[in-house]
Amino acid sequence: MTDRAAGGGDRAGREPAGAERRLRGLAASPGVAAGAAWRVGTVEHAAHSGDAAAELARARAALKRAGDELTALADRLRADGAAEQADIVETGVLMAADPALDAAVEASIARGSPAPQAIIEATDQLADTLAAIDDPMLALRADDVRSLGRRAASERVAPSGPGPFVLVAQDLGPADVAELDERVAGIALAAGGPSAHAAVIARGLGLPMVVGVGAPLLELADGTPLAVDGDRGDAVVDPRDPPPARRRAAAVASGPAVTRDGLRVRILANAAGPAEVRVALAAGAEGVGLLRTELAFLDAAAWPDEAAHRRMLEPVLALLAGRTATVRVLDFGGDKTPPFLRDTTARGIALLLDHPGALAAQLQAIGTADGVRVLLPLVRDAADVEAVRAHTQAPLGAMIETAAAAARADEIAAVSDFLSIGTNDLTADVLGTDRFAPGTVATHDPRVLARIAAVAHAAQAHGRVLEVCGEAASDPRMIPLLVGLGVGELSVGAARVAATHAAVRALEGAAQLARTALAAKDAGGGAATR
Ligand SMILES: C=C(OP(=O)(O)O)C(=O)O
Asked: Where are the domains of the chain?
């Protein structure tokens, strides 16, 4: 069964009560939270037990649990004003109880499949049947049934009880974090990295998170008092002075962000859906500088069509109501690869340009309303931007995320309406590091700063707005350097909006600081300019 029990059951037998223990990890999302540890794990998918009735009961329980999870998620979406999305999620609830699905699961178990495999086989079979009928609505249902199957077969366990909980896991995906409810006060991961998308989402939701804590974390029994310190990067077992259980409330910024010496910087937000946009606007964001549309489709079984994009976009655009809405077209690839693209190596805009129908469908859904602009991920050269230009009248921005693209910043700026530096990927590419591995993100390294400066120079030469939307945009060490290099827009996690705003307003002499940093010979010199 689930590895929730793997912690050994009675924690009193292993830890003297009240003995505080600090496990070192890495800070992934700021803030401090405490609650009862709750382990989420992937289940060991044991082979067929030999007892078909037991396997069938296990499969039915898994489908029921998946249906219950989707009901809870739909309720939350409805409360968030996303009624249409809630309706979609609820179709999964009906499917989970569908007698035809139950019969297919039973048949698969009779053929010798263990419960999780039987669920996948049955849902895939039903999805294939739906997809074979030439009807776009049924094709969407096929996606839904496949995603239901994966959810049920993975046997994730949602915490039960009022909370607050600190979620403990080996690793989590971005969607897992996005759907956490208010009972979860913080997250501690044994693995993971501060730049992974799960961490990006946690920061957006203002959910304290530490990653890379290591195996001892997974030995904690459910219910162990646990604090996460997302500022220092610690998980504290049996904390002596538990911090307040709930996540830190975001402060509110007001008025435009202008440095003391008069540089105006627009503070925008990174978001994946309406919940983060709401938090960001309430904290004083002027709009969205990066909407990560791909995160809504990580479970997709095929390229989303125009209707699916519209359903994803409408609640976000409604909240923004004409403010800046920077919609990034699907940035699939790497850790954001849906099952149907598993064998694909292309990423970002290159992948979309290989599938022009998929790109056109999304651009059509994005439209050209006031405030809307389109962002292209992993642009390689001017030709990428020009190829997209043929499909839309919306302003086009190019993301500069590789050293190669930075070297071509001038030709890219010439054909773009604005540029946006993805410092997470750019830093990893320039330094040859893995952004998803535990470790610090060294965007302040002069080799990275030199690329940022080159892009800033190109943007300036062509009169283009320059945005930074990677994590560096909210890093207090980087904000002075970025502003000093001429960055006009900082797009940050919703929970960082107010702090970024305050950091900009406190700034003076940024341009001189940036010159000093660029002159530094190594990362240590760069850090010394902080
Ligand atoms: C903002 C970026 O893109 P992603 O969504 O991949 O983090 C980045 O790489 O800095």
From this structure: 3-42+157-237, 52-154, 257-528
Residue in the structure block whose two tokens are 């002499």: 509
ipTM of the complex in this document: 0.98
CATH topology of domain 257-528: TIM Barrel (3.20.20)
Instruction: For residue 160, give the 3-state DSSP assignment.
Output: coil
SS3 384: helix
CA–centroid distance, 88 to ligand 1, in Å, is 28
Structure-token pair, residue 243? 């911090």
- Assigned CATH for 3-42+157-237: 3.50.30.10
Q: Is 342 exposed, middle or buried (0-12, 13-18, 19+ CB in 10 A)?
A: exposed
Which alpha helices (H) appear in 303-445, and where do they start and end?
A: 306-320, 348-353, 356-366, 382-389, 403-407, 409-415, 423-431
423: Cβ below 6 Å to ligand 1?
Answer: yes
Superfamily of domain 52-154: PtsI, HPr-binding domain (1.10.274.10)
Question: Counting atoms of ligand 1 from 1, which one is nearest the CA of 336?
Answer: 6
* Nearest ligand 1 atom to alpha carbon 424: 10
Nearest Cα neighbor of 202 from 237, 176, 223, 169 is 176
pLDDT value of residue 386: 98
- pLDDT number for residue 79: 72
Q: Give yes or no: 355 in active site.
A: no
Report pLDDT for 357. Answer: 96
| pLDDT under 50: residue ranges of the chain | 1-16, 42-45, 247-250, 521-530
The identity of residue 490, as a single letter, is L
Q: Which of 399, 451, 468, 475 to mutate to test the pocket of ligand 1 (most atoms within 8 A of CB)?
A: 399
